[in-house]
Design goal:
- The chain is mainly alpha-helical.
- It has two domains: 35 residues, no CATH class; 41 residues, no CATH class.
- Helix content is 42%, strand content 5%.
- It has a two-stranded antiparallel sheet.
- The protein starts with 12 loop residues before the first strand and ends with a helix.
Length: 77
């Protein structure tokens, strides 16, 4: 679903979009709308980071908002 690997064939539909057919630019615009959920919390969580830092990290990577806006979104979570 996240298109970490390019499919060899077929379609992946989410709503009105065929994820398998998205080009690089469209895929980059699509990715902030999805989230990866790791099943093994013990190994997927960095114990050196606070819960707030873990929640804020994707916002930093995607360059969303300034520090105050990110903190506000984290506090709302």
């Amino acid at each position: 679903m996240a298109r970490l690997e390019k499919p060899d064939a077929g379609q992946i539909w989410l709503g009105e979009s065929d994820i398998a057919a998205l080009g690089p630019r469209e895929l980059r615009a699509f990715r902030p709308a999805i989230q990866l959920v790791f099943q093994d919390a013990v190994t997927s969580m960095n114990t050196r980071m606070s819960a707030a830092e873990i929640i804020e990290e994707p916002l930093l990577i995607q360059k969303q908002g300034d520090k105050n806006e990110r903190r506000s979104r984290v506090e709302d979570s």
